[in-house]
Each structure stands twice: as structure tokens, then as C-alpha cells.
Design a protein that fits this description.
It is built from 15 helices and two strands. It has helices spanning 2-7, 10-45, 49-68, 71-87, 94-121, 127-156, 160-185, 187-210, 227-233, 235-248, 254-284, 291-323, 330-361, 369-391, 397-427; strands at residues 91-92, 216-217. A two-stranded parallel ribbon has the order 1-2. The radius of gyration is 21 Å and the shape is globular.
Length: 428
């Protein structure tokens, strides 16, 4: 009861609202920039094979990003950073800065190898063009990793407003350069625009932070990146990336339709869910309670049900308004809208699973190392078996992608409920 009153005390409630508002409105602005970015890509590239090949190689780089940039990294670092700043008045980031720079060398090499394998395995045309794309994507991932570590410190210190401004700056600069660069440099221009946004953030916010050298040393080591924990932290985005990659392995442009459909879902849900997950992770690291989790799930179910009803009536119209111009034709509208309707329910389940997992990640995970290992191995095994199982059927590729999404989403709900029960029992 005391924990309940503490969570909803006036001071804590106001702080939570301010933090959520900063994150929410920054994400709204980023989604607005996305609503500019994606139609530009649709206008220039449509559902062409060139764009499909770019999405395949970007999906490979996104796989690396989930371990170095996404929620996985934040879930690993935020509890540790939050506790360290609560225990120390002044903190030196000198050692942290040195470690991140060294680690980036390994990230670059591994990312480049993975992307090169995709280019040659799928026998892309214009291999030189896509090799240049892969180089820029590797640099993007490295700078993103560097930025993410230091921006997580802003969240740990409770400076969500500054974090929000930095994130918006990145998206703003990137979208400003997107159209002219794609006109002159085609798909290479896409990654150059992303790179410009990221380095602007680096020089504006991250480099000044990295020079802080007074106080207790905040250290980071390879042991902080447990592979099983990273996989478990990433089950939701890895599911989306795997499904996206699966949609493109037949060499068709199905991956482009899937990408446009997922963009709509992310534009609606990510601004809310990502922020809720961040707040659950931060505050549950200090005060253990499931109230925020229940509220978040209820909110997502309500929004998801409303969105599903809306998209079934107005899906074609929405896709047409957002994307149909330039190289994006009416046939692309109909296919994208149909796919969006069919994947909304499994994606809603995936988003709910991501919320349930956050309660588990806010626990003392050292107590659950064996469970984390088993769940991670089980997840990878289930992904592989599901993929092979779906391939046995003689369905068209788009239908196979939809079946795969449903199967994995149901599995994630089951596994996330198991993790939630573990954490709830521990909090009693």
C-alpha cells in the first residue's frame, strides 16, 4: 500500500507526467519527420527492386543495431547507470568514453562482414553501390552506439527533456537532407542523410558529455553485454526484423510492402509504447510495482482495438494519402493496405509482450541467469523452427509472411507472460 501511495504521490506523479510528456512529444516530432521521410522514399523509389535490395541490406544492419542501439542496450545500461548516479554526486565518463570507442571497432568489422554476405548471397545488381551503402550503414551503427550509451546517461540522470531534444535534432537534420541527397545519390543518399543527422547529435550533445572527468569513474566492460540477456531484451525487435527479412528472401519486392505497413504501425504505437517502457524500466528499478505495467497494457489494447477497427474501414484511404505519389502506384496502395490489416493483430500482441518484458528487466537479473539463458535459446530455436515449418507449405510468399508473424507473436505473449509472473512473484 505504501508503494502504491508513493507511486501516485503528487511529486512523483508530476515528475512522471513531465518525463512522459518530454519523451512523448519528442517521439511525436520524430514520427512527423518520419511521415515526411517515408513518403519521400515512396515517391522516389516506390516498391522497386532497387529499394527492396536496399531494405534487405538495411535489415541486416538493423539486426546489429538492436544489440548496439535499441531497447536491448538501454535495458542493460539504464538500471546500472541510474543506480550509479543515485549513489554518486559527481561522475567521470573518461573510462566509459574510452571503452565505447574501442568497442566500436569490433562493431564496425562485424557489421561490414554481415552486410557483405547479404550483398553477395542475394547477388545484388550494382554491388559497388550497395557496398558503399553498407560502409555508411556501418558508420551509422557505430556512431549510434556511441550516442546511445551517453544518451542513456541523460535518462539515468532524469534529464528526459535534454534527451528528447537530442533525439529530435537527429531526426530533423536527417529528414532535411533526405530529398536532395536521394535525388542526386539514389539509395546512397538515404544513408548519407542518416549519417549527417547522427553526427550532428554527436557533436552537439554527446562529445561535451564525454569530456566530463570529475568524480567517480563510471566503467563499462564486456561483461555488461551478456549475449543471452541481449537476445532476451531484443525478442520483440528481433521478431520484427526477422519477419521483415523473411519477407524479402524470395527476391521479390514484398519487403517494401511490409516496410511501409510496419511504418504505419510504428508511427501509431512506438511513440507511446517506447516511452512507457522506458519509464517502467527506470522507475521499477527504484520502486517495484506493476501498476504502470497494467495501465500500459490497458492503454495499448484500447488504442490497438480502435486502430484495427479504423484501418479496416479506411486503410486504403490512409495508405493513399500518405504514400501514393511518384513511383508509388494504386496497386501498391491496395497490397500495402491489405497487409497492414492482416498484421495489425499480431503486432498488437508483440507490443503487449514488449511491455510485459520490461517488468522482468527491471529486476535483479543476476538471480535469473539460467532462466534468461533458457528463454533466449528457446526464442532463437522457435524462430528457426517456425521459419522452416512455414516453408514446408506451398502458400504464396506474402501469406507465409503473415502466418509467420502470427505464430511468433503468440509465442512472444506466452514467454512474456512467463517472465512477468516471475517478476511479480519476486515483488511480493
Amino acid at each position: 500500500m505504501n508503494n502504491f501511495l508513493n507511486i501516485f504521490s503528487k511529486k512523483t506523479l508530476i515528475k512522471s507526467i513531465k518525463d512522459f510528456s518530454s519523451l512523448f512529444f519528442s517521439n511525436v516530432l520524430q514520427k512527423i519527420f518520419g511521415l515526411i521521410r517515408e513518403p519521400v522514399l515512396a515517391f522516389v523509389f516506390g516498391t522497386s527492386n532497387l529499394f527492396a535490395n536496399y531494405l534487405m541490406i538495411k535489415t541486416a544492419s538493423d539486426f546489429i543495431s538492436q544489440f548496439t542501439v535499441g531497447n536491448s542496450l538501454r535495458a542493460n545500461l539504464l538500471p546500472k547507470f541510474t543506480k550509479f548516479y543515485n549513489d554518486n554526486q559527481q561522475v567521470s565518463l573518461k573510462n566509459l568514453n574510452s571503452f565505447v570507442k574501442k568497442f566500436n571497432i569490433y562493431i564496425f568489422i562485424f557489421t561490414q562482414i554481415l552486410q557483405s554476405l547479404v550483398i553477395f548471397f542475394f547477388d545484388f545488381e550494382n554491388k559497388l553501390v550497395f557496398f558503399l551503402v553498407s560502409l555508411f550503414l556501418s558508420f551509422v551503427i557505430c556512431f549510434n552506439f556511441y550516442n546511445t550509451v551517453f544518451l542513456t546517461i541523460l535518462q539515468a540522470k532524469g534529464n528526459f527533456l535534454k534527451y528528447a531534444k537530442a533525439s529530435v535534432l537527429n531526426a530533423f537534420v536527417s529528414v532535411c537532407f533526405l530529398y536532395p541527397l536521394t535525388l542526386f545519390f539514389s539509395v546512397i543518399g538515404i544513408v548519407i542523410s542518416r549519417f549527417l543527422g547522427i553526427i550532428t547529435l554527436t557533436f552537439s550533445y554527446v562529445l561535451p558529455m564525454s569530456k566530463e572527468d570529475r568524480g567517480s569513474n563510471l566503467n563499462l566492460s564486456y561483461s555488461d553485454f551478456n549475449i543471452y540477456l541481449l537476445i532476451l531484451n531484443n525478442v520483440v525487435p528481433l521478431t520484427i526484423i526477422t519477419t521483415k527479412f523473411f519477407s524479402g528472401i524470395d527476391g521479390s519486392n514484398t519487403i517494401t510492402y511490409f516496410t511501409y505497413a510496419v511504418f504505419i504501425l510504428n508511427a501509431i504505437f512506438t511513440a507511446i509504447i517506447t516511452n512507457l517502457n522506458t519509464l517502467i524500466l527506470k522507475y521499477n528499478s527504484i520502486v517495484k510495482n506493476n501498476i504502470r505495467t497494467y495501465f500500459s497494457i490497458f492503454l495499448v489494447i484500447f488504442l490497438g482495438g480502435s486502430f484495427y477497427s479504423f484501418i479496416n474501414f479506411y486503410g486504403d484511404y490512409i495508405i493513399e494519402i500518405i504514400f501514393m505519389r511518384g513511383a508509388f502506384k494504386i496497386s501498391d496502395v491496395l497490397i500495402t493496405s491489405s497487409l497492414l490489416q492482416k498484421i495489425t493483430i499480431p503486432f498488437l500482441l508483440i507490443f503487449i509482450a514488449s511491455i510485459l518484458f520490461q517488468t522482468f528487466f527491471s529486476q535483479n537479473l543476476d538471480k535469473h541467469k539460467s532462466k534468461i539463458k533458457v528463454m533466449s535459446i528457446l526464442f532463437i530455436s522457435f524462430l528457426t523452427i517456425s521459419y522452416l515449418f512455414i516453408r514446408l507449405f506451398n502458400e504464396d510468399h506474402l501469406t507465409s509472411v503473415i502466418y509467420f508473424t502470427y505464430i511468433i507473436s503468440i509465442f512472444l505473449i506466452i514467454m512474456s507472460l512467463y517472465s512477468f509472473i516471475i517478476s511479480s512473484n519476486e515483488n511480493k
